[in-house]
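Module 6 notes. Inverse folding takes a fixed backbone as the condition and produces residue identities as the prediction. Think of it as a translation problem where the source language is geometry and the target language is the twenty amino acids. Below is one complete input and output pair. Work through it position by position during the lab.
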């Protein structure tokens, strides 16, 4: 592992160069570089600590149901670590956390110092943001450490020969892995030794998005009323390639259905992304406003750009249909957020990293699109045939409701690691 630590040092040093122009990368390097010194830690009491680690805000959303359930019990203190600065605002806004901060750079001494300071009874990592020296440190201190909501997609490089050998070196330190599906368990199993518990645990994100849908109905009921009888296409977490086909399909449909509106949320609402969308809307002859400019009255604009963070999962409640970005590049973002609001969902071809996208396709609540024509045809059919639309709408939400209820089951599984069961 000395070579790994050397590579970590070199990689971190080199990353300082692009970080000069990349604020997000700079914040991550600075935050992680502080180690335990950058943490916010509350008063110590006699309750045990559970440490929860997430990569970014998406994984934190998935962790929220379990965090809330642990808080309800009142029996543990909760510490949350994260790798990306995108998670920090949501973590800081969560009441009742005992401690939180960036996961330190992945040097063994740094991870040992973190765990020695927090003294967790267990470390729970959501999805797959596991770091070799974090696993080694937990094992050395005899702290159970495992993955929750774990998914290994079919094209994962972890099973490539050289990569596989490296992963087996440190994944042996995992106490348990609870995957989202049997297929994920089958893909992970070759990387493990017999001492790691491997089981299908489901995905707590389904519980979370149902809760967000409930909150959204109340939070945005005034906005929904402001749209009147208009049908709202919500395009969430968008990137330029997907935005191109969304705007073209929207423009074509508006020729015969002028009451159609587009509510669009760039994945990162930077000044550049907002201007790009303003230009795209004006290029098709649409009137456009930013959501922050809405005065509470009836909305006449054709395109509304979401220029804030943290509201997308709730604001789908005003929608009629959804497009989710990322499918033409980095990988599709959360498709179950709109599905929880009964919106049929469309997304691009790069969806193999998303187990839930596959479920939506299989159950005809989600649809893969690659061209403007694909998107226009789907939306056009749903507008013309309410029966077809209703079928897709119900199919989408059933995928979510049929996979909910995971949090309570995970609490039962966790008891053995929290000293409550055998």
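Target side of the pair, the amino acids:
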């Amino acid at each position: 592992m000395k070579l790994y630590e050397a590579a970590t040092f070199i990689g971190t040093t080199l990353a300082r160069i692009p970080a000069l122009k990349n604020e997000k990368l700079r914040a991550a390097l600075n935050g992680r570089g502080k180690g335990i010194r950058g943490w916010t830690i509350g008063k110590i009491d006699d309750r045990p600590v559970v440490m929860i680690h997430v990569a970014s805000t998406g994984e934190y959303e998935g962790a929220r149901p379990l965090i809330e359930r642990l808080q309800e019990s009142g029996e543990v203190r909760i510490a949350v670590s994260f790798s990306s600065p995108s998670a920090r605002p949501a973590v800081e806004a969560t009441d009742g956390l005992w401690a939180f901060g960036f996961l330190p750079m992945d040097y063994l001494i740094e991870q040992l110092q973190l765990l020695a300071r927090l003294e967790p009874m267990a470390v729970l990592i959501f999805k797959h943001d596991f770091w070799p020296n974090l696993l080694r440190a937990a094992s050395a201190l005899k702290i159970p450490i495992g993955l929750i909501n774990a998914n290994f997609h079919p094209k994962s490089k972890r099973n490539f020969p050289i990569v596989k050998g490296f992963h087996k070196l440190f994944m042996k330190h995992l106490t348990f892995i609870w995957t989202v599906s049997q297929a994920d368990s089958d893909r992970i199993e070759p990387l493990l030794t017999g001492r790691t518990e491997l089981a299908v645990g489901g995905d707590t994100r389904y519980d979370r998005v149902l809760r967000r849908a409930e909150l959204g109905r109340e939070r945005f009921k005034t906005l929904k009323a402001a749209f009147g009888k208009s049908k709202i296409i919500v395009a969430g977490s968008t990137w330029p390639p997907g935005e191109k086909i969304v705007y073209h399909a929207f423009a074509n449909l508006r020729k015969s259905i002028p009451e159609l509106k587009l509510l669009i949320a760039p994945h990162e609402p930077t000044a550049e992304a907002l201007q790009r969308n303003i230009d795209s809307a004006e290029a098709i002859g649409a009137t456009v406003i930013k959501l922050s400019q809405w005065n509470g009255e009836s909305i006449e604009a054709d395109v509304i750009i979401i220029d804030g963070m943290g509201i997308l999962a709730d604001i789908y409640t005003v929608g009629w249909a959804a497009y989710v970005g990322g499918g033409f590049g980095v990988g599709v973002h959360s498709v179950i957020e709109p599905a929880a609001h009964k919106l049929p969902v469309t997304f691009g071809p790069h969806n193999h990293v998303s187990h839930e996208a596959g479920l939506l396709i299989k159950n005809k609540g989600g649809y893969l699109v690659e061209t403007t024509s694909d998107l226009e045809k789907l939306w056009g059919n749903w507008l013309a045939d309410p029966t077809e639309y209703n079928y897709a709408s119900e199919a989408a939400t059933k995928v979510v409701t049929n996979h909910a209820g995971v949090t309570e089951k995970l609490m039962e599984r966790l008891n053995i690691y929290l000293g409550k069961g055998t």
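Reference fact for the lab report: The mean pLDDT is 94.
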